[in-house]
Amino acid sequence: MRPQPDFIHEFVAGKSNRTLLLLHGTGGNERDFIPLGRELDPDAPLLSPRGKVLENGMPRFFRRLAEGVFDLDDLKKRTNELADFVASAAQHYKIDSKRIVAVGYSNGANIAASTLLLRPEILSAAILFRAMVPLIPETTPDLSAARVLISEGDHDPIGAAAEADRLAGLLRSAGADVTIRFFPSGHELTPDDVDLAREWLIRLRVER
Ligand code: MLT
User: Fold this and answer.
1) Please, which residues have CB within 8 angstroms of residue 148's CB and are 6 or more apart in sequence?
2) Measured distance CA(204)–CA(138) in Å, rounded
3) Cα–Cα distance for residue pair 57/27, rounded to 1 Å
4) Active-site residue, selected from the candidate residues 48, 106, 114, 124
5) Pocket test for ligand 1, best of 29, 60, 61, 64 (most atoms within 8 A of CB)
6) Is 106 a residue of the active site?
7) Most Cβ neighbours (<10 Å): which of 93, 130, 201, 206?
8) What are the angstrom distances between the C-alpha of 123 and each of 10, 86, 127?
9) Backbone angles phi, psi at 190, to 5 degrees
10) Which residues have CB under 6 Å of ligand 1?
11) Who contacts 28 (Cβ-Cβ below 8 Å, separation ≥6)?
12) Is 92 a catalytic residue?
């Protein structure tokens, strides 16, 4: 039986006990970040769902009302649905549910941040490329075991630098160990982001 609730997704088996949950940006799909995942960690199993919301035909992980203005009811519902999928996929593929590291870009980073805030049991760590504050949770989650890397572009017109700082502050106030870095780039992902994330993951592997 397939994981329930299901998402269209790719799963690539790996040799390590840490799985990367790959979350694409608006207009992407489940195949986009498979090469990135392999580059970040050659040994990790990769789980890569496709967002279920369509905006003018472009897949996303939750609905938005305008650029940077999120439909919060939909965001909460979709976050829980994605979290339930990850939990059941972990059982289905026999991967360690305590060692799932999200790697999200833009819309994918925003749902990863929302998952940390609303379903803190799902992710042990997260790499957030070009993220914003997705929502303010009603109760502060316990993220004292979570590690987060936020990688931002100084000239990003969508997720402004102040947003990234605000997100870092929100996650830290919940106890997360947050590293934040800025590069002289825009919204696009650059080789600097990838190098930073790869090194951060190597340190995570050594320390945990
Ligand atoms: C979002 O909608 O999650 C952000 O505005 C980033 C984007 O996908 O453009």
Assistant:
1) 116, 125, 126, 127, 128, 168, 171, 176, 177, 178, 179
2) 30
3) 8
4) 106
5) 64
6) yes
7) 130
8) 18, 9, 11
9) -120, 165
10) 25-26, 64, 67-68, 106-107, 110, 158
11) 51, 59, 105, 108
12) no
Compute the radius of gyration of the chain from its Cα atoms.
15
Active site residue 156: yes
- The answer for residues whose C-beta is within 8 angstroms of residue 49's C-beta and 6 or more apart is 7, 8, 9, 21, 23, 30, 82, 85
* The one-letter amino acid at 154: D
Q: Whose CA is nearest to atom 7 of ligand 1?
A: 107
Question: 179 and 119 in contact (C-beta within 8 Å)?
Answer: no
pLDDT in tens, the chain (208 residues): 788 889 999 999 999 999 999 999 999 999 999 999 999 999 999 999 999 999 999 999 999 999 889 999 999 999 999 999 999 999 999 999 999 999 999 999 999 999 999 999 999 999 999 999 999 999 999 999 999 999 999 999 886 788 999 999 999 999 999 999 999 999 999 999 999 999 999 999 777 6
| Pairwise CA distance, residues 76 & 65, whole Å | 15
